[in-house]
Specification:
eight-stranded mixed sheet, single chain, 5 helices, 31% helix, alpha/beta, Rossmann fold
Length: 216
């Protein structure tokens, strides 16, 4: 890997504590989550996405104008390699429910996709944490749950409602880059807290317009 100078994080996060991460969805939040994890030293990253980069992705994500028309995960692999020297596992396809393990980050745009991921991680002893990022214009909602903990299961499933009941738009379909960056920060810090301290907040919400952070 590229010898990045991580001295500023030495007393905050040790990359040796990181577990492999699967990121499902490489849009405005998912692409930035992958880049951020690579920069702090998370070496084992797998990313699923079946879409190509479109013009509206450029101002809200990690992608560059030169990436237009390229598969998101293919472009993201090149960006991560340039920034950190890391090679990610790029899956140029939609996640289809295959087995998951370690840490999973859901950056998807429908409740149906979240339910598919949840079915793969629920009471799965190989998955230590599920992070689910949701963005609706200026509202950020990030869940970080242990899918084998009964309290976390009950809490998360309360928010796993049908698509027709969900706020629209979701997951960066419309919004501002700083809002996507806040979702990214909350997701990444949820992971580092679990790896470092063994725990994190189960649900974080941020209202951009009111500059208000709420936690459960």
């Amino acid at each position: 890997m590229t010898a990045l100078n991580r001295s500023q994080q030495d007393n905050i996060f040790d990359p040796a504590a990181a577990r492999p991460v699967t990121v499902i969805g490489a849009g405005s939040v998912g692409s930035q989550v992958v880049c951020s994890l690579a920069k702090i030293g998370v070496e084992r990253l797998r990313v699923f996405d079946h879409d190509c980069v479109e013009s509206h992705n450029i101002c809200m994500s990690a992608y560059r104008p030169a990436d237009l028309g390229v598969y998101k995960v293919r472009a993201l692999a090149e960006i991560v390699r340039e920034q950190s020297g890391l090679d990610i596992v790029a899956e140029e396809r939609r996640y289809a429910g295959e087995p998951l393990r370690d840490a999973v980050v859901a950056c998807v745009d429908s409740m149906a996709a979240r339910r598919l991921i949840w079915e793969a991680v629920r009471q799965n002893p190989n998955v230590g944490i599920l992070v689910d990022t949701r963005v609706a214009i200026e509202l950020v909602s990030v869940f970080a749950v242990n899918p084998s903990d009964q309290d976390d299961i009950a809490y998360y499933e309360h928010f796993l409602y049908p698509d027709e009941a969900a706020l629209r738009p979701m997951c960066g379909e419309h919004g501002l880059d700083p809002v996507a960056k806040m979702a990214t920060a909350l997701a990444v810090m949820s992971l580092t807290n679990v790896w470092t301290y063994g725990k994190t907040r189960r649900h974080l919400k941020w209202l951009a317009g009111e500059m208000k952070l709420l936690a459960d």
